[in-house]
Write a structure and sequence with these properties.
This protein is of the alpha+beta class. It starts with 8 loop residues before the first helix and ends in a 5-residue tail after the last strand.
């Protein structure tokens, strides 16, 4: 017989028996061996020779097997008896001397002619492991992204699957070392890890390593390294096997995704144009390049649209951001404007949104001028990527990224990524530009609606300071005012409008005008706030549907009288003022705040305090005291401490106000901050004269005589005639139509003030008397003789007053 056909019934039946006996398999038997077992059979199936390895496989020695049929060793001998031809290969279950079975894979071959056959067998699972392992090695060896290298104890490469090597196909071969392929720093890092594997026996798995090739300047990549120690039969280390997987694309993709995420998270969080440009430059270094610069049109920095042009010429670009700022930059970092670019075809494409990559030499050729090259090209850089900041059909500027030293050259993948980054960055910068324009317009409107920063009325010296919201927030409509009132009095106002932007500024302007009008009516603080609350309710009713709840304000209104040296004030939901006394004592004024101005129909309460001359009243909005999320009480304590530290009696109030804002207000505050300081004055006692008027018309002539004597004492004889007429008419009306007690008061302080006060609340009315009327000419005469006159009401009294200018001697 000749074993030539594996499809013979002998082989088929043997395979079937193997399948049917699978449930009785004892593959976990300790009798299995790792070496090949061999035996020689004659053509009848009798064992002729039996090897030691066959004994190891079955447990039977040669004396027990030789001369006997092989089917005595087979678990299902009937299959072998029916066989008519020896199969060339197959599987069979062999009995073991110790019991159980061993599944074996065998092959047969003729020996010395057809009379004898050599049978070689091994445990089936060992054969399968060997086949799979060989297939795995063949697959790994054929991978062009995987390098298998066997290093000896000195880490010299002994075997490798090069030239299909991701490290370097031309440089990796037996006898070389990693230092022959990689730059010394990267090679040493990998060798340190391999030595640790050799020493400890602990495998390394998927260690990522950035590398640079020794024979490819500027070429960089990434390797994923796994390594395990090789040992001999006695467990002694003989080397280390390493798998180097080309991880460049994965790392590159991951790096690009991380960079795109960082751009999305970090660029655009600020609405300041320069800050946004700096964020864009910072996010690119060192993740994308070694140096980055952002240049913007001058108009963009001002919040305006850039000019639309194509070609060269002066594009009015200015350096907005550099990263890193500590790098050695060319002259561009020391000048305001960027010199004009030459008219080059690339520039026209650039202005249409196209990005470009140049080597340093090509970029110098494009510039065409050594002076421009020195201005633009940093030393040591080998490639540049220039991308336009193009958004909403506007070219806002450019972003330039440089790579230097051993960094890889820019490629098309980098260009595609830069286009995405530049597009997002341009939108963020354009949003900041638009906000800058709107914010400047709103701040300009707000500041035009505010009064002069300093005033010098007779009652007090005032200084107001205002800081609009920053950090991307719109202005909030805070305001202050100092209104000169008759009889040398002064009204002090601070307010805070609900809402922000242009609407808040417009509301603030309307409220300030209304308060000035009502202040001229000389209303008491509580009554004035009540009327302003009614106005706010009307404004809310006029607001567009759904916006009524956003119309409102808080306000503090105070009136200081330098004659009585008293200050009356009322609050509509506003924080209390702070009083700095001449002796340096500082305290908040104990005031009962009423509801905000959005709530009409609610009463307000007037608080009156005595104020010494040279005292300072500090009125403010909540943006000054609500800092960092702290409550207003804590902020008020900070304000009083800051006032104690910064205020000087001989210092300028405006400087003190600016110092207070700088100390108390965060630079990125999202609320307006307003402060009004008033250093009080007082009219000297010698400039005030008071006379109690009897309830008798005969007192009119006595009032004239008293007035004449007082004016002569003050040296105001030139005002005697007009003042006598004014006093005569006012006193006559008070006696006839008013109620006692009645008082006449003269005040000399830049103007001559004449006041007549009685206890009647009747409002006097100016009218033109007919020729036949016996009366009705008193107030008309007063109006003709005085520069201005008026009437104010207090609690259970009214005062009619007039003012005449005092001509000063040259």
């Amino acid at each position: 017989m000749s074993p030539t056909n594996a499809d013979h019934p002998y082989a088929a039946r043997t395979a079937e028996n193997t399948k049917n006996s699978s449930n009785a398999d004892h593959r976990a038997s300790p009798h299995t061996v790792d070496r090949l077992a061999a035996a020689v059979l004659d053509d009848r199936g009798i064992v002729v020779r039996w090897t030691v390895t066959a004994q190891d496989l079955t447990g039977f020695n040669a004396e027990e097997v030789c001369g006997r049929l092989i089917h005595h060793l087979v678990a299902h001998p009937m299959e072998l008896r029916r066989a008519t031809q020896m199969p060339s290969s197959g599987r069979v279950r062999l009995r073991h001397k110790a019991g159980g079975t061993v599944e074996a894979t065998f092959r047969t071959a003729e020996v010395e002619g057809p009379a004898e056959f050599l049978v070689v067998a091994a445990p089936a699972h060992h054969v399968a492991d060997h086949v799979h392992g060989a297939a795995l090695l063949r697959a790994l060896s054929s991978q062009d992204r995987v390098t298998i290298a066997v290093h000896d104890m000195d880490l010299t490469i002994q075997q490798t699957n090069a030239p299909s090597s991701p490290i370097d196909a031309h440089a990796v071969h037996p006898g070389t070392r990693l230092g022959d392929v990689l730059c010394s720093k990267d090679a040493e890092a990998i060798q340190t890890m391999l030595r640790e594997v050799l020493q400890t026996g602990v495998p390394a798995a998927r260690v990522s390593q950035r590398v640079s090739w020794r024979h490819r300047p500027g070429g960089q990549g990434a390797l994923s390294l796994s390594a395990f120690r090789l040992e001999d039969a006695l467990g002694r280390p003989t080397g280390v096997a390493a798998l180097y997987i080309d991880d460049t694309e994965r790392v590159r993709t991951r790096r690009h995704l991380d960079l795109a995420r960082d751009v999305a998270e970090r660029v655009g969080s600020s609405l300041d144009v320069v800050r946004t440009a700096q964020d864009l430059a910072d996010v690119l270094v060192p993740a994308f390049g070694d140096l980055a610069a952002v240049d913007l049109a001058r108009s963009v920095l001002d919040g305006e649209e850039p000019s639309k042009r194509l070609g060269g010429g002066d594009l009015h670009l200015h350096s907005a951001a550099l990263a890193p700022a500590t790098a050695v930059w060319p002259a561009r970092s020391r000048r305001g404007g960027i010199p004009p670019f030459p008219d080059h075809p690339f520039l026209r494409s650039f202005q249409k949104g196209t990005a470009f990559v140049f080597s340093a030499e090509d970029y110098a050729d494009v510039l065409g001028d050594p002076a421009l090259t020195e201005f633009h090209v940093p030393a040591g850089c080998h490639s540049v990527l220039v991308a336009p900041l193009h958004a909403r059909d506007l070219t806002l500027g450019a972003i330039t990224v440089w790579r230097c030293g051993r960094s890889a050259m820019f490629d098309e993948g980098d260009v595609d990524l830069m286009k995405q980054i530049a597009s997002r960055g341009a939108l963020a910068i354009d949003n900041a530009r638009r906000y800058t324009r709107e914010h400047r317009a709103a701040v300009g409107l707000q500041q035009r609606l505010l009064p002069p920063a300093t005033t010098e009325p007779p009652a007090a010296q005032t200084a107001g300071v205002y800081r609009p919201a920053a950090g991307g927030a719109e202005i909030r409509g805070d305001w202050y005012d100092a209104i000169a009132l008759p009889s040398l009095r002064l009204a002090l106002v601070v307010g805070d409008v609900v809402g922000h932007g242009m609407a808040a500024s417009a509301t603030m302007g309307r409220l300030r005008a209304a308060i000035q009008t009502l202040a001229d009516l000389e209303l008491e603080p509580d009554e004035l706030l009540a009327r302003i609350a009614d106005l706010v309710q009307r404004l809310a009713a006029e607001a567009p549907s759904g916006d009524g709840d956003t119309v409102g304000a808080t306000c503090l209104y105070a009136i200081y009288d330098p004659v009585t040296r008293r200050c009356a004030m009322a609050s509509a939901g506003h924080p209390p003022p702070v009083l700095v006394r001449p002796d340096g004592a500082i305290e908040p004024v104990d005031i009962s705040p009423g509801p905000p101005l959005a709530l009409s129909g609610m009463p307000y309460e007037t608080t009156v305090i005595d104020v010494e001359p040279a005292s300072v009243l500090a009125l403010y909005t909540d943006g000054l005291i609500e800092r960092g999320g702290n409550g207003s009480d804590d902020g008020l304590r900070h304000l009083t401490k800051a006032l104690a530290a910064l205020y000087r009696p001989d210092g300028a109030l405006e400087e003190t106000g600016r110092a207070l804002l700088a100390d108390l207000v965060d630079p990125d505050t999202r609320d307006d901050a307003t402060l009004l300081l008033a250093r009080t004055r007082a009219v000297p006692e010698d400039d005030i004269a008071t006379w109690q008027i009897p309830a008798d018309l005969a007192a009119v002539s006595k009032a004239r005589e008293w007035t004449t004597r007082q004016l002569t004492a003050w040296g105001l004889d030139d005002l005697r005639f007009t003042t006598e007429l004014i006093v005569s008419e006012l006193v006559t009306n008070a006696i006839r139509y008013g109620r006692p007690p009645t008082e006449l008061r003269l005040i000399r302080h830049g103007v001559l003030v004449c006041e007549v006060t009685d206890s009647s609340s009747t409002q006097p009315r100016l009218r033109r008397a007919r020729a036949t009327d016996e009366g009705g000419r008193g107030l008309f005469i007063v109006a003709q003789l005085a520069e201005r006159w008026g009437c104010r009401h207090g609690q259970n009294r009214k005062t009619i007053w007039s003012e005449q200018p005092i001509e000063r001697s040259p």
